[in-house]
Amino acid sequence: MKEDEKETVKSKSDEEEIIKTMDIVRYGIAGMGSIGMMHADKLLSGSIPGGILCAVCTGHTEKLQSFKEKYPDVRICGSYREMLSYVDAVLIATPHPLHPQMAIEAFGAGKHVLIEKPAGADTKHVRLMNKAAADSGKVFAIMYNMRMNPLYKKVRELVRSGELGALKRITWLVTDWYRSQAYYDTGTWRATWEGEGGGVLMNQAVHNLDLLQWITGMPDSVQAFMQYGAGHNIQVEDDVTAYLQFPGGATGLFVTATHEVPGTNRLEIAGDRGKLVAENNEIIFYRNRISEREFNIINTDPFAKPENWRCHVPVKEGGDGHAGILREFTDAILYGKRLTAPGEDGILGLTLANAMYLSAAQGKQVDLKTWDDDEYYELLRGRIEKEKYLK
């Protein structure tokens, strides 16, 4: 063989090796509703380095023609199983009761999995999904995009670093999740026990429940009060008030609704060394010069209070949101990057939601230390059967 021919063969071999080792994750998306389309646009815009969208599958057949025209190079698969054969990772954006089984199937096929929130409708099936993820050794993440918000990152940092001292009370009034009846009428699966496993706690405030435990840790118990269809023609809850008890003695109040205008989104966390207020995208820290417990011991004036400073805590602009979760997931697959929102964490906020449903149904406090997956699952099944009967 001539020298120039040897060089040609070598170059071709090198090129093939480069292609094999390129840092690329081939994505498939299951579910092409509005959120699935949004993720597709991000992957196809080039804003997720290392991530390319290769295939999709969906029950939204009416959207496929426009998608084909916009993205002709993306394979449209007739089934979820077919799609799995073409990809390295799957992004599951179907109605969330389907998430656990679809994720389990993907792990079984050796795929990495990113699920939309919430993790599922009940902790029983999500626990099975988490086990499948652990057994597979694949990367597992959940689209808790609000964990990427610099505001909540900063609140978490201040709480977890001990800046507030021992926690006393957590209050989150989050009633700015307004949804009109027209929103609920966009799909027969919306705001149903079968289609979503609930209402505001499962579709909207699931983000806040996740952030709550991400910032402060899980409570020991919850007691909840709910109104079902308080402001809408729906069977599930659109108004919730829950009382929480945390390890160490701190208490909490969580209030959410989808029928108030104007709504409020105000998070207050009081501790031994002061109080944080997160509202309107800013954080105010009312900082005690000395801790309340220390002041209480040394003070002799019946009406005195610790000296308190009003501090404005700087918060970075922006935040990566959905794209940030996608980038981290891609980098975790390629380079082992640590995830801000591991998929296994999805069971935590879901446990809070499920416990609130159980508490409201039973009219009593629910102990999370002895949480029973089966007890809640039976309640949900009963509600689904009753819902079918009413229809």
UniProtKB/TrEMBL annotation:
This is Dehydrogenase. It comes from the Bacteria. It comes from Murimonas intestini. GO terms for molecular function: nucleotide binding. InterPro entries: Gfo/Idh/MocA-like_OxRdtase_N (IPR000683), Gfo/Idh/MocA_Oxidoreductase (IPR052515), GFO_IDH_MocA-like_dom (IPR055170), NAD(P)-bd_dom_sf (IPR036291). Transmembrane segments: none annotated. It holds the Pfam family GFO_IDH_MocA. Residues 152-276 form the GFO/IDH/MocA-like oxidoreductase domain. Residues 25-142 form the Gfo/Idh/MocA-like oxidoreductase N-terminal domain.
